[in-house]
TrEMBL record:
Adenylosuccinate lyase PurB C-terminal domain sequence ranges: 329-449
EC number: 4.3.2.2
UniProt entry tagged with the keyword RNA-binding: no
Pathway the protein contributes to: Purine metabolism; AMP biosynthesis via de novo pathway; AMP from IMP: step 2/2; Purine metabolism; IMP biosynthesis via de novo pathway; 5-amino-1-(5-phospho-D-ribosyl)imidazole-4-carboxamide from 5-amino-1-(5-phospho-D-ribosyl)imidazole-4-carboxylate: step 2/2
GO biological process: IMP biosynthetic process
Highest taxon, organism lineage: Bacteria
UniProt lineage: Bacteria, Bacillati, Actinomycetota, Actinomycetes, Micrococcales
Domain Fumarate lyase N-terminal positions: 14-309
Xref: InterPro entries: Fumarase/histidase_N, Fumarate_lyase_CS, Fumarate_lyase_fam, Fumarate_lyase_N, L-Aspartase-like, PurB_bact, PurB_C
Gene3D superfamilies per the UniProt record, alphabetical: Fumarase/aspartase (C-terminal domain), Fumarase/aspartase (Central domain), Fumarase/aspartase (N-terminal domain)
Protein name: Adenylosuccinate lyase
SUPFAM superfamilies cross-referenced by the UniProt entry: L-aspartase-like
Top EC group: lyase
Nucleus keyword on record: no
Species in which this protein is naturally found: Pontimonas salivibrio
Length: 461
């Protein structure tokens, strides 16, 4: 590990930095200032387009030069802006002054008073965060989560027919197939990813208390709500017409709840995969050069899934705190949300670490069908459900006089191991039709999986 990765306080900026580099490109402090600049420039262009202050609409080439400032905002330019902030002690005001200097350099000094015109800091910040969250989710978070879903679908289909003893309450239960159990997680995750993908990203641009007061005082001839709506929607966001100084964050809260639940599904996947490895149903594929234990050479620890669990728990806690805190703002404004929103990238980052560990972990395990088969063979008592259900059907059809079939089968199977011989002898002794006996005698724990195989077909890519 290089020395540059040792000193950062957060593991996201140190140990896990290579796993969240794409996210840092759109949700770092530098990215926040770059996005603020993008919003300020877009607002400046909008004002000139609408002739505010009798300004003339800018030529296409000039607009292109202004928008290019965003792409040119590299680390050197970021340092220039930070130097301005050292003086202003206000981050958004520093962006305004930075843009003013750029306008002068572009020969637009006579229009520099339109920079940040009638805007409050939260007009800039709420749109910047909305854009960063949207871009992070759609260009970084969703692709990573979708890769995990795609791999789960692949594994579910590959292992759809492999029978496995189910464990309800940790005890032997009606058999299933391993693929069907993986399909359950794929289906659950798909539902949550659809929720995330469908989320809207609200934004507002209406002044210090949401009333367009400064706008109306300075340029009453404009239709400010219409300009605001066009501006916000032009950024690819959903316009909120009724706010205080802040956009109320309800859209963010709903998103964070969906992100959190996606993580909880993934967490459950990790705990189950860990359990299957512990039971021997899954075996881990050795990776050359790696060490499982510092003292026990034989071990291959399920670290990918354990690491993912931990990071998902951290992310869940952060998303929960974000959702609770951002739901409330005192009167027309307090700064709680300003500090809280700076942790959004952390929450997304910890989930990104988890997605990548899960994906890697799934690629380093293989099924152990022999272990599953041995477990099934040793648990014929799980066929008790089938026997008593067949007896019930026989009674309804008038083919049996057995009283209380559940109790009859319970007497044979509860708390004891049933051998195939005992199982067959018991079936032969039952008062049921010959056809029913034939079906039951042909049944084994390996074949008592119902429609598990075909249920995998309900998965969508």
């Amino acid at each position: 590990m290089s020395s540059s990765l040792i000193s950062p306080l957060s593991p996201l900026d140190g140990r896990y930095s290579h796993l969240v580099a794409d996210l840092a490109d759109v949700f770092s402090e530098h990215a926040l200032n770059r996005t603020r600049l993008e919003v300020e420039i877009a607002w400046f262009i909008t004002l000139t387009d609408h002739g505010v202050g009798d300004a003339s609409a800018l030529e296409a080439k000039t607009k292109e030069s202004l928008r290019a400032l965003v792409n040119q905002f590299d680390s050197a330019e970021g340092a220039v802006l930070k130097a301005i902030e050292d003086t202003t002690q206000h981050d958004v005001k520093a962006v305004e002054y930075y843009l003013r200097e750029k306008l002068v350099a572009l020969g637009l000094g006579h229009l520099q008073e339109l920079t940040h015109f009638a805007a409050t800091s939260e007009d800039i910040n709420n749109l910047s965060y909305a854009l960063m969250v949207k871009r992070s989710v759609h260009t970084v978070w969703l692709p990573a989560a979708q890769q995990v879903h795609k791999e789960l679908v692949r594994l579910a289909r590959a292992w759809r027919s492999v029978p496995m003893l189910a464990k309800t309450h940790g005890q032997p239960a009606t058999p299933t197939t391993f693929g069907k159990e993986i399909a359950v997680f794929a289906h659950r995750l798909a539902g949550q990813l659809a929720r995330v993908e469908a989320r809207h990203f609200p934004g507002k641009f209406n002044g210090a208390t949401g009333t367009y007061s400064a706008h109306e005082a300075a340029w009453p001839q404009a239709n400010w709500p219409a300009i605001s709506q066009s501006f916000v929607e032009g950024l690819g966001l959903t316009w909120n017409p009724l706010t205080t100084q802040i956009e109320p964050h309800d859209g963010q809260v709903e998103l964070f709840q969906a992100l959190q639940q996606s993580g909880r599904v993934a967490h459950n996947l990790c705990t189950d995969i860990w359990s299957y490895i512990s039971m021997g149903y899954l075996r881990q594929i050795p990776v050359a050069g790696t060490t499982g234990s510092s003292t026990m050479p034989h071990k291959i620890n399920p670290i990918r899934f354990e690491n993912a669990e931990a990071n998902l728990e951290v992310a869940s806690g952060l998303f929960d705190t974000l959702a609770q805190t951002l739901s409330t703002s005192r009167l027309q404004r307090d700064l709680t949300d300003s500090s809280m929103q700076r942790t959004i990238g952390m929450a997304l980052g910890h989930q990104m670490v988890a997605w990548k560990n899960i994906l890697r972990g799934l690629g380093e395990v293989d099924i152990d069908a022999d272990t599953m088969a041995a477990d099934l063979e040793a648990n014929h008592e799980v066929l008790a459900e089938a026997i008593q259900s067949v007896i019930r059907a026989e009674i309804v059809q008038g083919h049996s006089q057995i009283d209380d079939p559940y109790d009859v089968v319970k007497g044979l199977t509860r708390g004891v191991r049933v051998t195939p011989e005992t199982f067959h002898a018991f079936i032969e002794s039952l008062d049921i039709s010959a056809g029913a006996k034939t079906r039951l005698l042909a049944l084994t724990p390996h074949t008592y999986v119902g429609l598990a195989d075909s249920l995998v077909d309900y998965l969508e890519d």
